[in-house]
Structure formats: structure tokens, C-alpha cells
Amino acid sequence: MNIKPEEITSIIKQQIEGYDNKVEAVDSGTIIQVGDGIARVYGLENCMSGELLEFPGDVFGMVMNLEQDNVGCVLLGDDEGIKEGDIVKSTGKVVEVPVGEAMIGRVVNALGQPIDGKGPVKAAEHRPADVVAHGVIERKSVNEPLQTGIKAIDAMIPIGRGQRELIIGDRQTGKTAIGIDTIINQRGQDVICIYVAIGQKQSTVAHIYNTLTQKGAMDYTIIVSSTASETAPLQYLAPYAGVTMGEYFMDQGKDVLIVYDDLSKHAVAYRTMSLLLKRPPAREAYPGDVFYLHSRLLERAAKLSDKLGGGSITALPIIETQAGDVAAYIPTNVISITDGQIFLEADLFHAGQRPAVNSGISVSRVGGSAQIKAMKQVSGTLRLELAQYRELAAFSQFGSDLDNESKRRLEKGKRLLEIFKQDQYEPMPIEKQIMIIYAVVENHVMDIDITKIKEFEKGLLEFMDTHHKEVGETILSKKVLDDEVKKMLNEAIEEYKKVF
Predict the structure, then answer these.
(1) Rounded to an integer, what distance in angstroms lies between the CA atom of residue 149 and that of residue 155?
(2) Do strands 221-226 and 191-198 pair parallel, antiparallel, or not at all (unpaired)?
(3) Is the peptide bond between 355 and the residue preceding it cis, with omega within 30 degrees of 0?
(4) What is the rounded CA–CA span in Å between residue 392 and residue 395?
(5) Which of 10, 80, 354, 392 would you call most buried, defined as having the most Cβ atoms within 10 angstroms of its Cβ?
(6) Which residues 6+ apart lie within 8 Å of 67 measured at CB?
(7) Is the whole-model pTM more than 0.90?
(8) Quick check: 143 and 151 in contact, CB under 8 A?
(9) Is 171 annotated in the active site?
(10) Cβ proximity of 71 and 63 under 8 Å
(11) pLDDT bracket for residue 18 (50, 70, 90)
């Protein structure tokens, strides 16, 4: 095979012309300690707090501590196969998660990667997980209701779009149920829902996914799951990933509901990371900045001004108490960040009052201004009547003789409590809530036996649907109970009582 010298020359010339002198400078360091999902890296000179680092084996880490001679980093994945002496590269990026319409209906992990076996997500864009919340000038006051479909809440502790309402109580008192019912109730309301599971069992998340699918709620819902079997850094990241996905929709002028279930486990995951990073512990062994952890998360819930499209994020954080102790460190922190709380009491739950909402301690600080006028009219005296009932019930236990007025109040209180009982996953439209509460408040059910109240409620609502559909439609259109609507309601209720 004869190769002519000029051929060799031309090949060398082509190679020289095609040679591109690129020098890529990468800030890299060496692992000096690794274990428990924490790595200490030496030699990263231009490292930023919150920056993503690339470890061997396609594992990423996030910088948490910037110290004099090394950086403390949490691993967002398995530390198996990572050892001391390995080279770590900085990426120059912060933690980002995918956002967009393609996320709806999917179950993803804390990094936005799909875990539902339905293939990859074609995200519109990626956004940083931890950003600064919108300022005061960019917001407007809460002025539109977000109905939960739960009578006790929509009547006495109303929630508005853009509000942060805490759900607090002991374990197994129905906290998650309120969040799930609220998500189911958003069907047809043009609200995107996000459920963030932090430190839950995988079976629990699967059960919630199945429930939402059966109720048709996954059509507008994203589940962000960081289960108990995952590392603390991923549990720490999950709620920030969830609210980032929500902000994408809020910036487009849409309304978003996000449920954080629950922030007690989130604080524990953060405490785990902080203690491993050797940050100084403060009260109850939590680091001193645990308040900032939750405040910067919940501040991102907002009702944006019309200039920015008027979108909103409504946050329902959940906190688990120990034996009803709302004065512990994390509960008091989150109570002071949120705009009210729904307090669920174990004693009420075990007594069969479900949802077990304690109307005395529960409060909504802004939702009342978003409540529709018709509901305000029927629910105005409810808190007072229930408080009087509780006082009289405690007093009458001593067997003392009561006057007729006290007996009437006791009977009415019992009927109110009976009406507020509601099955799980059965949220009720607002017009039906108004009808049944009106029937009790206006003393239409005083002559009905207490054991028949639930049967009366079910029958009345069916009767209204079949014979007096116009009443519900009028309430929805007028949003106020004027004399005409009251007359229609009174006549329809009395008509039903004759056949009941």
C-alpha cells in the first residue's frame, strides 16, 4: 500500500485546521470524609452555598456548610461506592427541579424524577428549588375562597386562595384526610393541586395515589414523594421542590393548592442533616435556623397582584403534635408563620366526632374576608353556639336541673355537632353545606330525633336535588341569602319534613 507524501501532508493540514484549542477549567476538590449521607470536601475554592457538586457514580451533592478549610455537603443519593480521596467537581449550578404542565398527574421524587413507572417527564423548564418569595408590593390581600368541602371548616375556619392554614393535631386524628378531601373538592374549580409526602410510608403514598385516581383528582394533581426510606437530604428538599412546581403555575395566573404532609418530619430530617454537619444544636436539639427553614418555605404561598397575573398558592402545612402539646418548639414556630390553624383533637376523634375539629382553638385569620356572604350569614353564630353548648354540657353532667332555654341550647348544640360529622373522601359543594347548616341554625330540625339527623340531612339534600334544584342554583349565583332565597329554603325544608 503506497501512501504519497502529499496525502500525508494534506491529512495533517486538515487535522491542524480542525484543532480547536479549548481549555476547560473545572473547580474540583477531594473527599476527606464521607458517611451517613454527608461528605466533607477539601480544595473547592469558588464554591457557593447551596451549589450542586458532582460526585463519582453520577451522584450529586448540595453544599450546606462553608468552612475555613473544607465544605460540608449532603448527598442527594446513595453514598455507596463513594470513598475518601475521590475527586468532586463543582457544577456552578444550584439544585433545580423540572416544572410545567407535563408534571400534572405524575408521582415524582424530591428531585422531580418520575417514580410512577410511566416513563420520563418532558418538562417545560427547570427552576431553582430554593428561591426568595414574592415581596409585599407584588401581593394583594386574599379575596377569593378556597373551599375544602368540609362543613366544619368552610363554615367556621374558612380558607382563602393565597392563605397558609396549618392543620395540627396528634397522629391518627385525620390530618391527612382533610388535605386529601380538599384536593378532591377542587375538581372542576380550575386549581392545580400538589401533595408533598415527607417521611411517609411508601404504602401510604400509594394508597393516597389510588384514592386520588379513583376520585378523578390526579387529572390536576402532582404528588412529590420523599418516603421514610429515603435519605434526610431528599426529605429536606421535597417541600421546596413541590412549591417550585407550584410557582410555575402561579406565575401563569393560575391557582395552586399545596399540602405539606408533614413539616414535623421535615424538621426532623433537617435536624438530622444539621447534627451530622456538626452545626450547633439549640432548643430540642434542632438547629437555631429551623424557624427560617419553614418561614422561607411558607412565605412562598401568596396571592399575586393583578399586575403579575393574580395567581395564588394556598398552603396547607401539616404538623403532628405529641399528646396535644401545641406549645412545643416546631408547632409554635409554624403557628406563628401561618395565617391560622385547624386543630384536630384526639378526644373528639375517639368520641366519633369526625372530622375532629376543635372550633374553640381553631382560627382563620384571613379566610373570613374571602368567604361568600351566604355562608357568612348562616355561620355567623355557630362558634358562639358551640361554645355555649360545650359549657352547658360540662355543667349538666352534675345532674342539676336546667331551665328550658338551657335545654334548648343543649339540644341545638347536639344537632350542630351531628351535622358537622362527615365521611372521609366525601367533600360537599358549598350550596349544599349552606342548605343543611341553615336548616339547623333556623331551628328546623329541633323536633327531629338526634339519631335521625344524618338520615334527615341525606334525604333533604337528595330532595333538594330532585324537587328544588333552583334553590342551590340561586344560592350559587346570588352568593347571598336574601328574603326571597330564605323563603324558598323555608318552604322546601318544611315540604320535605312532611314526607320525612
Answers:
(1) 10
(2) parallel
(3) yes
(4) 5
(5) 354
(6) none
(7) yes
(8) no
(9) no
(10) yes
(11) confident
Say which amino acid occupies 175.
Answer: K
Residue 5: half-sphere exposure toward Cβ, Cα within 13 Å: 0
342: Cβ contacts below 8 Å, ≥ 6 apart: 153, 157, 165, 166, 167, 168, 178, 357, 362
| Strands 96-99, 87-94: pairing kind | unpaired
- Quickly state the pLDDT bin for 34 (edges 50, 70, 90): very high
In which order are the strands placed within the sheet that holds 363-364?
A: 107-108, 221-226, 191-198, 255-261, 312-320, 166-169, 340-344, 363-364
pLDDT at residue 400 tops 80:
no
* pLDDT bucket at 224, cuts 50 / 70 / 90: very high
- Cα-based distances in Å from 367 to 176, 242, 299, 315, 364: 21, 23, 17, 13, 6
What CA–CA distance (Å, rounded) separates 381 from 12?
Answer: 92
pLDDT category of residue 373 using cuts at 50, 70 and 90: very high
> Greater confidence, 6 or 66?
66
The predicted pLDDT at position 63 comes to: 96
DSSP per residue, 334-390: HHHHSSEEEEE-HHHHHTT-SS-B-TTT-EESSGGGTS-HHHHHHHTTHHHHHHHHH
Residue type for position 257: L
For 339-367, the pLDDT digits (tens) are: 999 999 999 999 999 999 999 999 999 98
Q: How confident is the model at residue 3 (pLDDT cuts 50, 70, 90)?
A: low
User: What phi and psi, each to the nearest 5 degrees, are found at residue 179?
Assistant: -60, -45
Residue 177, SS3 per DSSP? helix
Report the Cα 253 to chain-centroid distance in Å: 19
Give SS3 for 35.
Answer: strand
Q: What's the grid cell of residue 485?
A: 332565597
Pair 176, 167: CB distance under 8 Å: no
Of 139, 279, 365, 383, which one is the catalytic site residue?
Answer: 365
Is residue 184 within 8 Å of 217, Cβ to Cβ? Answer: yes
